[in-house]
Write a structure and sequence with these properties.
Chain A is 6% helix and 49% strand. By secondary structure, chain A is mainly beta. The two termini of chain A are 17 Å apart. In chain B, the strands form two sheets. In chain B, strands 3-4-5 form a three-stranded mixed beta sheet. Chain B has a two-stranded antiparallel ribbon with strand order 1-2. Classes of the chains: A mainly beta (368), B alpha+beta (168). The interface between A and B is medium-sized, with 23 and 12 residues.
C-alpha cells in the first residue's frame, strides 16, 4: 500500500510560493515566489534548512526557477520581465547576468539537456531561445518564436534532444524544432479546453509527455507511430482534480505528480492506462461512421458545416484515475511539484507560502 | 467620451437588501466547531456592496452590478462564486470592476476560500475573455504588482467594509 509522509515543512517565504526545483545533484532545493526572493534549502544535521536567500535581483514576483543540467547555474525569471542567471559554487550564488528582451512578465525558463540552450516564455506571446557561450556566462538570443496567440505559460525541453514544448493561455501546446539554424513549430496540439499551465516529458524514452490545464485535467500525449517523429496525439486524460492543475512532473521512477488549485497533490501511474476501462485511443469503426454521416449531409450546407466543425469526431480518450491523493497538501493552491532526481521525494510549493517535502512509498507492482 | 462608457447608468436604491448586521442579533453569531464563523452570501454581498464604480461616483450596489442572488457561497466547501453584471454590454471597465471584486474578497474573506468571479452570462460582449483573465491567478497577481492599476483598485475599494459604513 502507498504511504505518504511529510519529511519537511519549510517556512520563510513571505508570499505565495510559485516554484520549487531540485538541483540536479538532489542536494539543494530552490524555491521562489511573490516576495521577489529565491531561497535555497539544503540538509544540515539531518534537517532541511534555508542556506541562502537571493534577493534584490528581481523587482517583482519570481515566477520560475531552472537549474542547468550540470548544476553550475540557476536561472530565475520574473514578472519584472527579467531572466537572471546565477553562478553556483557550493552553496554560494553569484549574480552572473540579466537577460532582457521580453516585453513583460517572463513566466517560464528551462535549460536544454545539453545546457547549451535556454528557453524563456512570456505574456508577450513569444518564446525565446538563448544560446550560452562555452563558459555559460554570456547569452545571446538565437531565436524568437512567434505562434502562440496568447500569453505563453510554460516551456519544457525534450530530455535528450533539442526539441521544445510550450503551453499557452491560448489552450494549445506547440512543438518546436531546429532546422538549419532556425526554429519551427512542427505541431500544435489541441485538446485542452483552457489554459495549459505546465508540460513534462516522460524522462527516460521521451515517447510521451503530459500536460496540465485550467480545465482541471491533465492529458497524456504520445508520439504518433508511422508519422514523422515530431507529431503527437492524445493518449489519455488524467481525471481527478477539481480545480486548475498548475504543475506536473514525471519522475524517472515512472510516476507523475500533479499540484492543483484544489489544494491537493495527486500521484498517477501512467503505465496502468492500458488497464483502464474505456474505449481504446483509436477506433476505426467510429471514423467510418463519421465519414458516412458527412456524405449523407453533403446536400445541406448548414448541416455539412456543423459536421465539419466537430472535433468530437475523434473518439473519447481513456481516462486515468489517480493512484494516490494527498488532500490538503497545502493550505491553499499547490503551484509547483518537483520530483527529487533520485530519491522518492516530492517537493511542493503553495499559496500558503510554504515549501513541503513528501516522502512517497509506492505500492509494490502487482504480480505478473 | 469614448465608447464603452455608460454616461447615464440606472441608479438603484441602495438599501433594498438588509445588511447582515440587521439580520442577526448580537448573541446570534453563528459559530461552528472550532469557533469558526460561518460565511454566507449576504456577508459576501456586504463586503462588495459599497465598492465604488471606477467611472461613476456610485457603488456597485447602486448600479446593480452586484446582486445578492448572483452570489453563491458554500461555507463547508469554502467556495464563493460571484457573478457581476456590467451596466452596458461594451463596458470598458468590466475587467477593472471584476478585479476590484476579486481584490476586495482577497482581503476580506478567510484565506481558505476559493473565489471565482465571472460576468453574468449574456451581459457583456467580451464575457469569455474577461472571465478567463479574472480567474487566471497569475494574470491577477501580475496586475496587482502594477502600481498605477493597484492605485485605481484601492480607490474603488477604500472605505467599503461594513464597519466603515457604520461610522458614517
Amino acid at each position: 500500500k502507498a504511504q505518504v509522509q511529510v519529511v519537511a515543512e519549510l517556512e520563510g517565504h513571505k508570499d505565495r510560493v510559485w516554484c520549487v526545483s531540485w538541483a540536479p545533484s538532489g542536494k539543494m532545493l530552490a524555491s521562489c515566489g511573490g516576495d521577489t526572493e529565491i531561497r535555497i534549502w539544503a540538509k544540515q544535521g539531518g534537517k532541511f534548512v534555508c542556506v541562502r536567500v537571493l534577493e534584490g535581483a528581481h523587482r517583482r514576483t519570481v515566477r520560475r526557477l531552472a537549474w542547468s543540467p550540470d548544476g553550475k547555474f540557476l536561472a530565475s525569471c520574473g514578472f519584472d520581465g527579467q531572466v537572471v542567471i546565477w553562478a553556483v559554487n557550493g552553496t554560494e550564488f553569484e549574480f552572473r547576468a540579466s537577460l532582457e528582451g521580453h516585453e513583460n512578465e517572463v513566466k517560464g525558463v528551462r535549460w536544454s539537456s545539453s545546457g547549451r540552450l535556454l528557453a524563456t516564455c512570456s505574456r508577450d506571446k513569444t518564446v525565446w531561445i538563448w544560446e550560452a557561450d562555452a563558459e555559460g556566462g554570456e547569452f545571446e538570443c538565437a531565436s524568437v518564436l512567434n505562434g502562440h496567440k496568447q500569453d505563453v505559460k510554460t516551456v519544457r525541453w525534450h530530455p535528450f534532444q533539442d526539441m521544445l514544448l510550450s503551453g499557452s493561455y491560448d489552450d494549445t501546446i506547440k512543438v518546436w524544432q531546429e532546422e538549419d539554424d532556425d526554429w519551427y513549430c512542427t505541431d500544435t496540439l489541441v485538446g485542452h479546453t483552457s489554459t495549459v499551465w505546465e508540460i513534462c516529458f516522460e524522462p527516460t524514452e521521451a515517447k510521451s509527455f503530459v500536460s496540465c490545464s485550467d480545465d482541471h485535467t491533465c492529458r497524456l500525449w504520445r508520439q504518433k507511430t508511422g508519422a514523422s517523429q515530431e507529431k503527437w496525439e492524445g493518449e489519455g486524460v488524467l481525471v481527478g482534480h477539481t480545480r486548475t492543475v498548475y504543475s506536473i512532473d514525471w519522475g524517472r521512477h515512472g510516476y507523475i505528480a500533479t499540484g492543483a488549485g484544489d489544494d491537493s497533490i495527486m500521484i498517477w501511474q501512467p503505465s496502468s492506462l492500458n488497464d483502464c476501462p474505456g474505449p481504446p485511443a483509436t477506433t476505426a469503426g467510429v471514423t467510418v461512421a463519421a465519414t458516412g454521416t458527412a456524405e449523407q449531409m453533403a446536400t445541406n450546407d448548414e448541416e455539412e458545416e456543423a459536421v465539419v466543425d466537430r472535433p468530437a469526431l475523434s473518439p473519447p480518450l481513456p481516462k486515468l484515475a489517480p493512484l494516490i491523493v494527498i488532500a490538503d497538501a497545502h493550505q491553499g493552491d499547490v503551484n509547483s511539484v518537483d520530483w527529487h532526481p533520485s530519491l522518492p521525494l516530492l517537493a511542493s510549493g503553495g499559496d500558503d507560502c510554504k515549501v513541503r517535502i513528501f516522502q512517497i512509498q509506492f505500492p509494490p507492482p502487482p504480480p505478473p | 467620451m469614448a465608447e464603452g462608457y455608460n454616461l447615464n447608468p440606472i441608479v438603484h436604491s441602495a438599501q433594498q437588501v438588509p445588511s447582515r448586521k440587521d439580520t442577526l442579533d448580537d448573541d446570534d453569531e453563528e459559530l461552528e466547531g472550532e469557533g469558526r464563523e460561518t460565511i454566507d452570501a449576504l456577508e459576501v454581498y456586504d463586503m462588495l456592496r459599497h465598492i465604488n464604480d471606477p467611472e461613476h461616483p456610485l457603488t456597485l450596489e447602486q448600479l446593480n452590478v452586484i446582486q445578492l442572488e448572483l452570489i453563491k457561497v458554500d461555507d463547508d466547501r469554502a467556495t464563493a462564486d460571484v457573478h457581476f453584471t456590467p451596466t452596458i454590454p461594451h463596458c470598458s471597465m468590466a475587467t477593472l470592476i471584476g478585479l476590484s471584486i476579486r481584490v476586495k474578497l482577497l482581503r476580506s474573506l478567510p484565506s481558505r476560500f476559493k473565489v471565482t468571479v465571472n460576468i453574468t452570462p449574456g451581459t457583456h460582449a467580451s464575457e469569455h475573455a474577461v472571465n478567463k483573465q479574472l480567474n487566471d491567478k497569475e494574470r491577477v497577481a501580475a496586475a496587482l504588482e502594477n502600481a498605477p492599476l493597484l492605485n485605481v483598485l484601492n480607490k474603488c475599494i477604500q472605505n467599503t467594509d461594513p464597519s466603515d459604513q457604520e461610522k458614517e
